[in-house]
Amino acid sequence: MTELSPRDIEQLVAAHPLPEGVREATMNRTEIAAFFDVSLTTISAWITDGMPVLERGRQGQEYQFSNAACFAWKAARDAGEEQRSAEAREAITAMRLQLVGGGAGETELAIHPKERKLLYEVEHHRLQLEAERNKLMRREDVAEMLTRLFVIIRDTVEFWPDVLEREGVISDPAAVDKVVTIGDRMIETLHRAIEQFFMDRPRGQEPAPLRETLFDV
Known about the structure:
Helices cover about 65% and strands about 0% of the residues. The chain has seven helices and two strands.
């Protein structure tokens, strides 16, 4: 890659200055690697890609870098890669629309109903595949799983006092009552937590109500 001129580096640093509070400094290879939290191998690769170097290492002399210049170079490169990715995604979307009869920049509503139906079917099958791979779960499945889980917890907690008293772990009636109170509070806390879970994840515009049978057998 063509080496950047001092003018190029100056423009990069002006466009991508160091974050506030970070001072400009001259660093060796180990220090610049620590500055970016990367390996020395990565630094070597960046040098090959054109990262600015103040002094190239030679026998008895270390590489020297300006952290400001290196930061600006990396920021510009990252921005360029993001731009290329965005352009690639746009090209892919345009091609897919063309394949089903649409055009670049159009929404799926601009596609002929027949082709739009095909597009929706493809997306539907993709979602089904994701669900089969356990990457997606239906809201109802989550609720069912949580219901089963908390029924087990509820039943276990309700039997604690009887088991502890029967096995002689607790003989004081007041202590047994205390265990019952603690268990009830825990169940109530768990109930509020799961209720909040569904309230924080509304279905459409309205929050989905908590199943009344959440703690029922």
